[in-house]
Write a structure and sequence with these properties.
Length: 271
């Protein structure tokens, strides 16, 4: 039996990969150019190896402090999502209580509402708490989400009910069942949610721009956005900062891509 020809699919996938990589390659090229070279028409597609753009960006904005802020916010938001969403998902998937289906449908309805509608109420809450220009203002709204609850609920539903019954016969309460039995079994889902949360939190822009105006309390995305001038922008320096900001996420994705794809693919195995 002859093997089916797969080279057309490989050609299409390779073309798609080049399209996806092109913006990152252009970002790196411009970060190593001078300002006049970055403004040339037609554009110059080769770098001039202007490495001074990278130390200059650290002198223009507090990029080191903003990098640390981003790491702290991303770690806190990810930890909160994994804990709170897994607790809610366990309750919706494994516990029986009145109105469980209706409450879960309300959770899913939140996914249909644009996040911009929550911007003003969230800002007013932060003003009332006195949290403007603080890291907790960036962390608190993101520690729980309906999507994370839905994702992990799908994993909990795939586990057999016999596990709960056996643990109950041994005298385990629901919290012990969740922590010692269920949570280790949904590790692929936790890894997938963790990676998605890291990418979302790391690149979040709108909320950090609204709630924090002090450069020392900004995240990387907001700090780099502040470099855009009204009449002129130093694109090589801006792109150098973008390279610094995107490199950690790219490295993390390369390391965790198998777990991420496997976790997302496994989510739809049971409704």
């Amino acid at each position: 039996m002859s093997r089916p020809r797969t080279w057309p699919a490989h050609v299409v996938l390779a073309g798609g990969a080049l399209v996806m990589v092109a913006p990152f390659a252009w970002q790196l090229v411009v970060s190593l150019q001078t300002l006049p070279e970055s403004l040339r028409v037609p554009p110059k597609f080769t770098p001039s190896w202007q490495w001074s753009n990278f130390p200059e960006i650290f002198q223009t904005v507090p990029l080191g402090r903003q990098f640390l802020n981003t790491v702290v916010v991303t770690a806190a938001v990810t930890a909160g999502q994994l804990l709170l969403c897994s607790l809610a998902a366990f309750a919706f998937a494994r516990l029986r209580f009145p109105g469980r289906g209706a409450i879960f449908m309300l959770f899913l309805a939140v996914l249909m509402v644009p996040g911009e509608l929550f911007l003003i109420p969230r800002y007013e809450i932060m003003v009332g708490l006195g949290w403007l220009n603080t890291l907790q203002a960036l962390i608190a709204p993101g520690v729980f989400g309906a999507f994370g609850t839905f994702l992990l609920r799908q994993f909990f539903l795939t586990l057999p009910r016999e596990l709960d019954e056996a643990a109950q016969l041994e005298g385990a309460n629901p919290l012990q069942i969740y922590w010692h039995i269920m949570l280790p079994l949904v590790r692929p889902g936790l890894l997938a949610l963790g990676m998605l949360t890291v990418m979302w939190s790391w690149s979040s822009l709108l909320w950090p721009l609204v709630v924090n105006t002090d450069p020392e309390m900004m995240t990387l995305s907001a700090g780099l956005a502040s470099l855009r001038g009204q009449f002129q922008t130093n694109f090589p320096m801006l792109f150098a900062g973008s390279v610094v900001a995107t490199l950690p996420v790219i490295v993390l994705f390369v390391i965790m891509q198998k777990q991420l794809i496997a976790g997302i693919a496994f989510t739809g195995s049971k409704g």
